[in-house]
Amino acid sequence: MDKILEYLKNGNQPDNRQEAQKLKLVCAKYTLIDGELYRRSYAKPLTKCLRAEEALKVMEAIHRGECGTHARGRSLVMRILRQGFFWPNIHKDAQVFVERCSQCQYYADMQRQPAGYLKPINSSWPFAIWGLDFLGPMPTAMKNYKWILVAVDYFTKWIEAKPLTQPIAQSVESFLWANIVCRYGIPMMIITDNGTPFANQRIRDFCGEHQINLKYASVWHPYTNGQAEAANKNILNILKKRLDGARTRWPEELPGAIWAYNTAPSEVTQESPFSLLFGMDDVIPVELEYLSPRVETTADFEPEALQTWVDENDGSRRVDLDLLE
Q: InterPro entries of this UniProt entry (predicted)?
């Protein structure tokens, strides 16, 4: 990046004509703002260019920090770019970093057969269909927690989860009310397996009261509740890599694991559940430390000036609406 900086700051370029022309083409993708180098991006207006030591720390934070999922190389690059950072050779550096991560190598999935065909269950809108399942038994932890009740939204793939001492209908009913209905409204359908905690009169009465269509996955076709099964697998993989042997600490790591999953872009859709739900990416700790473009831009706004801008913009939009025929 030094040559790019020198050219943009001082106009210095190689004596060789071909190399100079090549440098100009490369520099067209970059710009200087207050002495900082930024790269023009297709996904965002600008991404901040990092030096080697900064890039290593950003990879460390995003890969295995508070919001880390120990993502593979391509997913790691996607997350870095979405958070507003870039540097040359980012793909190669991310791949090498993941290959050197001991947790990723030790707990990596063993792919023994090719993936099967997708059998999608379509959801019309966010939180219309939820899949529920229990993950466990886990190693006995504080407060005798041994199970995780997991719910996944079929539209956004957003996950809600709660540690429990035992898988009973009362806990399921409480979870449905507090973690689903009170947060996201009444769903159209809930899909579960035929386990005793779900297939009982108490849960049927709760769903009947709230006019929720309760569906049970067939024993012969368990993929009907495949979203919940996939969510369980992802949560377990994240917990294994984050705990790295400290197995009884899983209830403490669970909120961070859920946050990491909900905010990580999918390799398939290239969107995270968070961005599908809120229309933006979440701000993560590393953005505050290295000042991503959106954090740096927002920090320059004074609250009074920002409110004035919002009020004026709202007023202009109302005037535009009045002018419509």
A: Integrase_cat-core (IPR001584), Integrase_H2C2 (IPR041588), RNaseH-like_sf (IPR012337), RNaseH_sf (IPR036397)
